[in-house]
Amino acid sequence: FQLDLSANLKQRGIHNVFHASLLRVHEPNDDRLFPGRLDSQIADLEERDGEWAIDTIINHRGSGTNATFEARWKSGDITWVPYSTISGLDALRAYLELLGIENISALP
Q1: 61-64 long-range Cβ contacts below 8 angstroms, 24+ apart
Q2: Does residue 50 register a pLDDT over 50?
Q3: Using CA atoms, how far apart are residues 44 and 5, in angstroms rounded to an integer?
Q4: Spatial separation of the C-alpha atoms in residues 80 and 67, rounded to whole Å
Q5: Do residues 64 and 101 lie in contact, with contact meaning Cβ atoms separated by under 8 Å?
Q6: Shortest CA distance to 90 belongs to which of 66, 67, 106, 74?
Q7: Do 82 and 42 have their domain in common?
Q8: Mind listing the pLDDT tens digit for each residue in 2-42?
């Protein structure tokens, strides 16, 4: 399942795709027991640099905006992600620059 996460959670590197076995029915927070539980209170496990936890783009399949990219995350994991997921990241801009491409539409 793919979840629509807040921009803050995306910046913290929280991945938005989960296997169905990991999902549970939402139970609202009990503010009497756990006051002020906000997503901004999640501990920073990675250094914050203004973008997701993708370190570098290694490879791609497909062309243009239909391409998927092999991404190395700062945690060391390597996954394939669609262009729509990483379109604004510095890692993608650096990858395109290495290929000598200025715009995603020129991606072979």
Answers
A1: 63/107, 63/108, 64/104, 64/105, 64/106, 64/107
A2: no
A3: 17
A4: 10
A5: no
A6: 74
A7: no
A8: 888 888 777 777 888 888 888 888 777 777 776 666 555 55
Identify the DSSP state of 89.
-
Domain count, the chain: 2
> pTM of whole model > 0.70?
no
Is 32 in the same domain as 9?
yes
**Cβ neighbours around 79 below 10 Å, total:** 13
Nearest CA to 90 out of 54, 44, 61 is that of 54
CATH number at residue 84: 2.40.50.40
**Which structural domain, as residue segments, surrounds residue 42?**
1-48
Do the beta carbons of residue 51 and residue 89 sit within 8 Å? Answer: yes
Helix ranges, 47-89 (H): 83-86
Mapping DSSP to helix (H, G, I), strand (E, B) and coil, where does residue 65 land?
Answer: helix
Residue written as tokens 């890692």? 91
97 φ/ψ angles, rounded to the nearest 5 degrees: -65, -40
